[in-house]
Write a structure and sequence with these properties.
Chain lengths: 294, 274
Amino acid sequence: MTSRRYKATFSLILFVLPAFVLYLLFLVIPMLQGSYYSFTDWNGLNKTYGFVGIQNFVEALRDDRYFRSAIWFTAKYVIFAVVFQNVVALLLAILIESRTRAKGLFRTIFFMPNMLSVIISTFMWVFVFSKVIPALSEYAVFKFLNLSWLGDPQVSFWSILLVSLWGGVGTLMLIYMSAIQGIPLHLKEAAIIDGATPFRMLRYITLPLIAHALTICIFLTLNSSFKVYDLVYALTGGGPGRGTQVITMNILEEAYQGNNRYGYASAKAIILFLIILVITMIQVSMMKKREVEA
Amino acid sequence: MSRRIYSVLAWAVLAVLAVYFLFPIYMAIVNSFKSEGEVYNSVLGLPSALKFDNYTEAFKKANMLRSGWNTVIVTVTGIVGIVACSSLAGYKLSRTRSRLSSWIFMLFVASMLIPFQTIMVTLTKMARDLGLQGSPLGLGVVCAGLGVNMAIFLYHGFVKGIPRELDESASMDGCGEWKGFFLIIFPLLLPITFTIVVLNLLWLWNDFLLPVLLLNDYRQYTLVLTINMFFGKYSRDWALILASLILSSIPIVLIFAFFQRWIIQGITEGAVKG
């Protein structure tokens, strides 16, 4: 009997080993190393370094003006991006699902940007913001478009949101669409017979019954928005100055571009991890409670 | 009557949003056929002639064949690595009921919470120490390491739906464990394998930050990195840039056009189960 147990354990280890080695090398060890370096003043090159305790964390949160402003900018972006992306994705899903014709066409149009690389599609937007919109704003009707879309941090914030909405809605829309398809038909019919308006349908039938999709989509958008990099890099490069710098950019700047403060950058990376962890945990545990069964 | 108004309103909203979504792509395509001067003088107009000069120039100058090939290497290495390692591990972890097994599974799942940005700096160092920096193949291996946790999670859930009797019948017919896995189990895992391939294809093909950190020579660059470099180099010549953007998007658009149904299904399932 014990020899069979050993055999089972042995075969388990054999099957899991390749994946576990990769996992250990490229996820676990970097994570542990990062946590370790975050308490040191290592510069990434020297053989020697000193322990500085929690000084890196204190400096980042208390004294580092650029890091703090990157956190605020990212936080502001997260709030708007999560709300806009989910509202628009849900709206699209409901509208497309209520159509009888051209469903596939609309789905393709709104999903298309998700297939493209963020860098490549954002360069198209750079073209739109720097060449097309200025040309449009020469016409009287579009006069209001005459803004410095990429040059003024106040305006660029909205440019970034506009592009993130464009690129982020597709996947969410698909998830909402499949959730809406899962709503039992008899509930919709009952509501229509009772004379429910479209708004009441949404409030009392659709939303409660797709709560699980809401949990997933808000989780996904929270996660991706806190980690945003490619889009901001391609659109504004974090500028002008550091006006649109996000957390991930600030970390990279600290680790590489001339600064070489490896340990300090690791501390900032840990802070980002903790922020995402705490916020998504709260979100998921709060929203899970409100889900109902059909 | 109100139903009628609602319907008109719905079409109007969809139309406005469709214009917003198609606008940049339309603008990029139209202007990619113009000459540099034409872009400068009439951005909004149609091109005077349908010339592919920008495309041939972009294809040559950006060395699309080489960077496309590099991208294929990264993507294929990553996907093959992820599917091979995770299907074995996910299957076995799901079938074995022991404390060790559930512990290992928990470790994999917990790591899904680690953002790439938290480990990127130390990961780059690790890749350098292992000699994986500076080659598309090495990048693919690192990507496989980052992708196994979610794939194992998806396989683990899927295997629960496959009756155990199938494993047992295989071993009774004298099939060894490994042979049984490849001949009987793996074919049954194909639906979820397809989902995993789709999700990782989109990630690997379009990834930017990790390739930037791991590839240091333009000859190793993937398509996205090449375009990024190209953009910096020819930033004034929009016609050329736009042609390169369109050209580099064609492979993924073609893949989408052929496999749309499966891709959409894969993404929905991956998200709902992940």
